[in-house]
Protein backbone atom coordinates (compact mmCIF):
# COMPACT_ATOMS: atom_id res chain seq x y z
CA UNK A 1 0.00 0.00 0.00
CA UNK A 2 3.06 2.30 -0.01
CA UNK A 3 3.30 2.44 -3.82
CA UNK A 4 2.04 6.03 -4.06
CA UNK A 5 4.21 7.43 -1.26
CA UNK A 6 7.44 9.29 -1.78
CA UNK A 7 10.44 7.69 -0.04
CA UNK A 8 10.90 10.67 2.28
CA UNK A 9 7.21 11.04 3.11
CA UNK A 10 6.40 10.88 6.81
CA UNK A 11 2.93 10.70 8.32
CA UNK A 12 1.69 13.82 10.09
CA UNK A 13 3.76 13.96 13.30
CA UNK A 14 1.59 13.13 16.32
CA UNK A 15 3.71 15.31 18.61
CA UNK A 16 2.13 18.40 17.07
CA UNK A 17 -1.08 17.52 18.92
CA UNK A 18 0.71 17.30 22.28
CA UNK A 19 1.25 20.23 24.64
CA UNK A 20 4.18 22.40 23.44
CA UNK A 21 6.44 21.42 26.34
CA UNK A 22 6.59 17.81 25.11
CA UNK A 23 7.88 18.73 21.64
CA UNK A 24 11.46 18.96 22.87
CA UNK A 25 11.33 15.48 24.41
CA UNK A 26 9.87 13.75 21.36
CA UNK A 27 10.91 10.16 20.90
CA UNK A 28 12.55 10.67 17.51
CA UNK A 29 16.29 10.34 16.97
CA UNK A 30 16.53 13.71 15.21
CA UNK A 31 18.74 16.48 16.52
CA UNK A 32 18.01 20.16 16.02
CA UNK A 33 20.34 23.03 15.22
CA UNK A 34 19.18 26.63 15.46
CA UNK A 35 21.43 29.03 13.57
CA UNK A 36 20.82 32.50 14.98
CA UNK A 37 21.02 35.49 12.65
CA UNK A 38 20.08 38.83 14.18
CA UNK A 39 16.80 40.06 12.69
CA UNK A 40 18.51 43.31 11.69
CA UNK A 41 20.49 41.36 9.06
CA UNK A 42 17.46 39.76 7.35
CA UNK A 43 17.05 41.62 4.03
CA UNK A 44 13.50 42.27 2.86
CA UNK A 45 12.19 39.24 0.97
CA UNK A 46 15.22 37.05 1.77
CA UNK A 47 13.08 34.03 2.69
CA UNK A 48 11.64 33.87 -0.84
CA UNK A 49 15.05 32.94 -2.26
CA UNK A 50 16.41 31.22 0.83
CA UNK A 51 13.58 28.70 1.39
CA UNK A 52 14.06 26.71 -1.85
CA UNK A 53 17.86 26.78 -1.38
CA UNK A 54 17.46 25.37 2.16
CA UNK A 55 15.06 22.68 0.92
CA UNK A 56 17.53 21.66 -1.78
CA UNK A 57 20.42 21.58 0.71
CA UNK A 58 18.36 19.49 3.13
CA UNK A 59 17.50 17.03 0.37
CA UNK A 60 21.18 16.64 -0.52
CA UNK A 61 21.94 15.76 3.10
CA UNK A 62 19.61 12.84 3.73
CA UNK A 63 16.35 14.75 3.87
CA UNK A 64 17.23 17.24 6.61
CA UNK A 65 14.40 19.62 7.46
CA UNK A 66 15.67 23.19 7.04
CA UNK A 67 13.52 26.26 7.54
CA UNK A 68 14.19 29.99 7.68
CA UNK A 69 12.31 31.45 10.66
CA UNK A 70 12.56 35.19 10.03
CA UNK A 71 10.28 36.17 12.92
CA UNK A 72 12.56 34.29 15.34
CA UNK A 73 15.78 35.36 13.63
CA UNK A 74 17.04 31.84 13.01
CA UNK A 75 17.41 28.99 10.57
CA UNK A 76 16.22 25.68 11.98
CA UNK A 77 17.84 22.43 10.89
CA UNK A 78 16.42 19.05 12.00
CA UNK A 79 17.72 15.58 11.32
CA UNK A 80 20.44 13.10 12.28
CA UNK A 81 23.45 14.79 13.91
CA UNK A 82 25.95 13.44 11.35
CA UNK A 83 23.87 14.86 8.48
CA UNK A 84 23.53 18.23 10.24
CA UNK A 85 27.30 18.36 10.71
CA UNK A 86 27.90 17.41 7.06
CA UNK A 87 25.58 20.20 5.87
CA UNK A 88 27.26 23.00 7.87
CA UNK A 89 29.85 24.13 5.26
CA UNK A 90 27.17 24.46 2.56
CA UNK A 91 24.75 26.09 5.00
CA UNK A 92 27.42 28.62 5.92
CA UNK A 93 27.92 29.44 2.20
CA UNK A 94 24.15 29.93 1.81
CA UNK A 95 24.06 32.25 4.82
CA UNK A 96 27.02 34.25 3.52
CA UNK A 97 25.22 34.57 0.18
CA UNK A 98 21.80 35.56 1.56
CA UNK A 99 22.99 37.53 4.62
CA UNK A 100 26.13 39.30 3.32
CA UNK A 101 26.26 41.81 6.20
CA UNK A 102 25.66 39.35 9.04
CA UNK A 103 28.56 38.04 11.13
CA UNK A 104 29.32 34.32 10.85
CA UNK A 105 26.85 32.53 13.14
CA UNK A 106 28.73 30.91 16.04
CA UNK A 107 26.71 27.71 15.47
CA UNK A 108 28.52 27.28 12.14
CA UNK A 109 31.97 28.18 13.41
CA UNK A 110 34.42 25.47 14.53
CA UNK A 111 32.79 23.34 17.23
CA UNK A 112 29.57 25.35 17.14
CA UNK A 113 25.96 24.26 17.55
CA UNK A 114 25.26 20.57 18.06
CA UNK A 115 28.95 19.65 17.81
CA UNK A 116 29.69 21.61 20.97
CA UNK A 117 27.25 19.45 22.92
CA UNK A 118 28.94 16.32 21.60
CA UNK A 119 32.40 17.57 22.61
CA UNK A 120 31.27 18.33 26.16
CA UNK A 121 30.02 14.77 26.53
CA UNK A 122 33.26 13.23 25.22
CA UNK A 123 35.88 15.39 26.92
CA UNK A 124 36.21 15.88 30.68
CA UNK A 125 36.21 19.47 31.87
CA UNK A 126 39.73 20.91 32.07
CA UNK A 127 40.98 21.12 35.67
CA UNK A 128 40.69 24.59 37.16
CA UNK A 129 44.30 25.39 37.98
CA UNK A 130 44.62 28.68 39.85
CA UNK A 131 47.08 31.13 38.34
CA UNK A 132 49.72 32.64 40.64
CA UNK A 133 47.84 35.95 40.60
CA UNK A 134 44.69 34.41 42.15
CA UNK A 135 44.21 32.99 45.60
CA UNK A 136 43.79 29.20 45.41
CA UNK A 137 40.59 28.01 47.03
CA UNK A 138 41.68 24.46 47.90
CA UNK A 139 45.43 24.65 48.46
CA UNK A 140 46.92 21.74 50.45
CA UNK A 141 48.76 22.58 53.63
CA UNK A 142 52.44 23.28 52.67
CA UNK A 143 53.97 20.63 54.97
CA UNK A 144 51.55 17.69 54.53
CA UNK A 145 51.78 17.00 50.74
CA UNK A 146 55.48 17.16 49.83
CA UNK A 147 57.81 14.29 50.84
CA UNK A 148 61.06 15.38 52.55
Shape: globular
Mean pLDDT: 73
Please give the order of strands in the largest beta sheet.
1-3-2
Helical content, roughly? 25-40%
Distance between the termini: 82 Å
Largest sheet: 3 strands, antiparallel
Stretches with pLDDT under 50, minimum 5 residues = 12-27, 114-123
- What's the total count of β strands? 3
The helix/strand order is: EHEEHHH
Structural class: alpha+beta
The number of helical elements comes to: 4
Radius of gyration: 22 Å
Q: Could you give a quick summary of the protein structure above?
A:
By secondary structure, this protein is of the alpha+beta class.
How do the helices and strands line up, and which of them pair or pack?
Layout: E1 31-36, H1 46-60, E2 65-69, E3 74-79, H2 81-98, H3 114-122, H4 142-145
Antiparallel strand pairs: 1-3, 2-3
Helix pairs in contact: 1-2
Explain what you see.
The chain has 148 residues and is of the alpha+beta class. 31% of the residues lie in helices and 11% in strands. It has helices at 46-60, 81-98, 114-122, 142-145, and strands at residues 31-36, 65-69, 74-79. Strands 1-3-2 form a three-stranded antiparallel β-sheet. Strand 2 and strand 3 form a beta hairpin. Helix 1 (46-60) runs antiparallel to helix 2. The N and C termini lie far apart (82 Å).
